[in-house]
Amino acid sequence: MAPGKGSVGSWAGIEEGESRIMRRRNGNGTQQLQDVTEKFRRGEIKLIRIMEEEGLITERERTGLAERVDRAVTQKRSSEVLATAHTIHNRLIRTLQTAKTVGQKTGPPTELDVLSEMSRLIQADIGRDRLFEQILDLIASGIPFENGTIFTLNRTTGQLAPAGVRGAQVDLIGGVHFDMGFGFSSWVAKQKKPILLNDLHSSQRDGRPDIGSFLSVPMVVQGELIGVLNLSHPANAAFNEDHLRLLTLVASQAAAILQRVLMYEEVARLAVTDDLTGLHNRRHFHDRLADEIRRCQRYGCCFSVLYLDIDNFKVINDTWGHALGDRILADLGKVMVRWGRSSDLVARIGGEEFAALLPMTDAAQAIRAADRLRAMVADHSFPRRKRLTVSLGIASFPGDGQTAEDLLKKADAALYVAKKLGRNRTVASGVAA
Q1: Residue 385, exposed/middle/buried by CB under 10 A (0-12, 13-18, 19+)?
Q2: 220 versus 170: which is more confidently predicted?
Q3: Which pairs with CB-CB distance under 8 Å and at least 24 residues apart come from 193-201?
Q4: Angle subtended at Cα 55 by Cα 62 and Cα 68, rounded to the nearest 5 degrees
Q5: % helix / strand / coil in the chain, to the nearest 5?
Q6: Which CATH fold topology does 11-26+275-428 show?
Q7: 221-252 in b/e burial notation, b at 16+ Cβ within 10 A?
Q8: Over 344-384, what HEC string results?
């Protein structure tokens, strides 16, 4: 790395220089983001088609909305994708609210009421916990229950976990394990079929609720299991077929909402994540650095920026191939996650270059942290029993610069010095090597 390489005079220069790095980096591609976006496209097109079939929009309106979805996906910008989803859902809400106000009434919610309320929840700017609370509120307005639990499927582990609870957490045969976890809800998830049990005599002696009636309905959308909804009541015959039908409708709509929430979260996560290592990406690192500068200018605090480069990594790629190089880069990302504090931000800048933002850390503290990371890397056995060393450059705010451009330039220059001095060492800007 030459002194001028990566040392630029403007944010535009930083973006241009690092985009060149990203083009030649190991682990090219954003397949995860493409998959999530395509899944979104299919879901929105299906919703538009249903709206037309139900007479909620005209054929011309359907064509316009579908074209907007395709255009948003083609632009490959998460902001456009989300904005398009809001347009479609706002249209659905207005249509359903108009239908609902034609004849105001009291009493248990109808299917139209459920659809209208669920469409409103799609647009509500609330967290996931609040979303589950409002879904249980809607169920309580039409089904008498004492205890309700919403289980969601963890896509990583393939197991169900409670996500929303009203009263006490409820399930049956909790000691029995099925494919997706313990309890009857796991069996319902596996079968993807609802169950109504109205003549139970389950008297719990360990603090769990008595169960005389039990309803369990899977939350499924487009064939994909999202979770399970469980309700219970201590009395027998507390639920009927109408309750089962209403809960099934709520579950299907809740599944669609939660699937969108999960996709939005996944799109947002992938937009700031490096595909190969799972660390934050270059753009997110720049955004957080700008935020940290503003924070420290306001409150008079310090922080440090750390640049890391794998020594002689080109030899590994040239000798063993990029497949092994990718595995080593991913493994190094895990080492850096173990090394960093919860307040630190670790990112892959491109190729074999990584960076870390260390809040409330002065130059001396940053040197100690960097040396600890360097030792962890040297002691780690990478794939194919490869041993690596790394060189690190450090710049600290406010001593080494007041702007992101200055700090990154100083950290990069310090990294270059570490390389020139023989590699496998730490150099801090303004500190004698």
Answers
A1: exposed
A2: 220
A3: 193/218, 194/218, 194/244, 194/247, 194/248, 194/251, 196/239, 196/241, 196/243, 196/244, 197/172, 198/236, 198/237, 198/238, 198/239, 199/236, 199/237, 200/172, 200/236
A4: 15
A5: 50, 20, 30
A6: Alpha-Beta Plaits (3.30.70)
A7: beeebbbbbbbbbeeeebbeeebbebbbbbbb
A8: CEEEEEECCEEEEEEECCCHHHHHHHHHHHHHHHHHCCEHH
HSE (side-chain half, CA atoms, 13 Å) at 78:
16
Rounded distance between C-alpha atoms, residue 322 and residue 10, angstroms: 32
DSSP state of 385: G
Evaluate the omega torsion of the peptide bond into residue 234 and state whether it is cis, within 30 degrees of 0: no
Distance separating the N- and C-terminal Cα atoms of the chain:
18
Comparing C-alpha atoms, which of 351, 140, 146 is closest to residue 250? Answer: 140
Q: Bin 225: left if φ > 0, else alpha if -120 < ψ < 50, else beta.
A: beta
Q: How far apart are CA 49 and CA 64, in angstroms?
A: 12
* 188, HSE (Cβ side, Cα atoms, 13 Å): 29
The CA distance from 304 to 396, in Å, is 4
Q: What pLDDT digit, counting tens, does each position of 24-77 carry?
A: 444 444 666 677 677 777 777 877 777 777 676 788 878 888 888 787 777 766
DSSP 245-265: HHHHHHHHHHHHHHHHHHHHH
The per-residue pLDDT for 91 is 63
Amino acid residing at 425: R
Assigned token pair, 413: 């220059």
Sequence-ordered strand ranges (E) for 167-223: 177-178, 181-182, 195-197, 213-221
List the Cα angle 305/306/309 in 5-degree steps.
150
Main-chain phi, psi angles of 143, to 5 degrees: -130, 125
What is the residue extent of each domain of the chain?
11-26+275-428
Distances (CA, A) of 308 to 59, 217, 320, 370, 431: 56, 51, 22, 9, 17
Instruction: Tell me the percentage of the chain whose pLDDT exceeds 90.
Output: 45
236: its two tokens: 């027998």
Tokens of 293: 């500068």
pLDDT tens readout for residues 127-157: 778 888 888 888 888 888 999 999 998 877 8
Token pair of 133, please? 């609370």
Stretch 299-314: mean pLDDT: 96
